[in-house]
Write a structure and sequence with these properties.
This protein is α/β, with parallel strands linked by helices. Helix content is about 50%, strand content about 10%.
């Protein structure tokens, strides 16, 4: 399992959307055609309950249902990474449910509590490790101001196998990587656009929301980076940049909106996003998205 997990982490971690039905309830089965397409294209590791999955808009019960049913949809075709987080008791509940569902590892969202102590995060991770039976963990690092020393302390826990680096600070990434176990996998956590920069300082693999909409392009970018073809990777990224630009608007509040709007245009209705995410796209954003989809023959 360890080797399979390490290989998957160096690939693409595809962050799946959370579909809703007409009543606004989670509808995991709507992911089936999206999942099948992504896995057929070569997705290395599907991720449930990530931020593209509107993790913070879900109840713990809903997130539990998502991981159970997504694990059934994956059906052993790829290792499943399950997002967990929020308050310690919610995180522990989701950790146990995810382990029981068959997730091979946990992606631990960085606690958003305004009063977070680095040593408190160590205790947080230890409690999660205990209840999950020692399931491997990938840390989701969105705030690197805790400092390299604190990051190294978190990474010293034996269950930590990887770090999803989601801050636009490649030099800090290089510094943190040098301070930690060389066997850890550092994953670019800001999707395709930042992947070449993070690869240049030692990251491997990247996260992707595009995988829901255009998995073949994500796979091609990954292949180019693995081959050291930065020029080719950047050319491929240029062709999908408009999509990421839409996602970054309104303080990233259209991040999931653009993905779900694109899926809707492809005939894969996953419902709207939940507030406080923006829904729907503005007319200008929708026009830009339509042009992107048409230009790339995605509808």
């Amino acid at each position: 399992m360890a080797l399979a997990l390490e290989q998957a982490l160096t690939g693409i971690s595809g962050i799946l959307v959370t579909p809703y039905d007409a009543a606004g309830d989670v509808a995991p089965q709507r992911l089936k055609p999206i999942m099948d397409r992504a896995l057929a294209a070569g997705l290395h590791m599907p991720v449930v309950n990530g931020n593209t999955g509107e993790f913070y808009a879900l109840t713990t019960e809903e997130a539990s249902r998502m991981v159970r049913e997504v694990a059934e949809l994956v059906d052993g075709r790829a290792p499943l990474l399950a997002g967990i987080g929020r308050g310690i008791r919610d995180a522990m509940t989701l950790a146990k449910v995810s382990a029981d569902a068959g997730a091979v590892a946990l992606m631990v969202h960085q606690p958003p509590d305004p009063f977070v102590a680095p040593r408190g995060i160590v205790d947080y991770l230890k409690a999660i490790a205990d209840v999950s039976g020692g399931l491997p963990m990938m840390l989701y690092l969105r705030n690197d101001t805790i400092g390299t020393k604190a990051i190294a302390e978190l990474c010293a826990l034996p269950q930590v196998r990887g770090i999803k680096w989601a801050t636009p600070n490649p030099l800090k990434l290089a510094e943190a990587k040098a301070a930690c176990d060389p066997d850890l996998v550092w994953v670019g956590g800001l999707a395709e656009i930042w992947a070449p920069t993070f690869y240049a300082v030692g990251a491997r693999g990247f996260t992707s929301g595009l995988i829901n909409v255009w998995p073949e392009r994500s796979i091609a970018i990954h292949a180019a980076l693995e081959a050291g073809d930065y020029r080719g990777a950047n050319a491929l990224i240029a062709g999908m940049k408009a999509f990421e630009e839409i996602r970054a608007e309104e303080m990233n509040g259209t991040n999931v909106t653009a993905v779900k709007a694109a899926l809707l245009a492809q005939g894969l209705d996953c419902g709207p996003t939940r507030p406080p995410s923006a829904w729907p796209l503005t007319s200008a954003q929708q026009t830009k998205l339509d042009a992107f989809l048409t230009q790339n023959k995605l509808t």
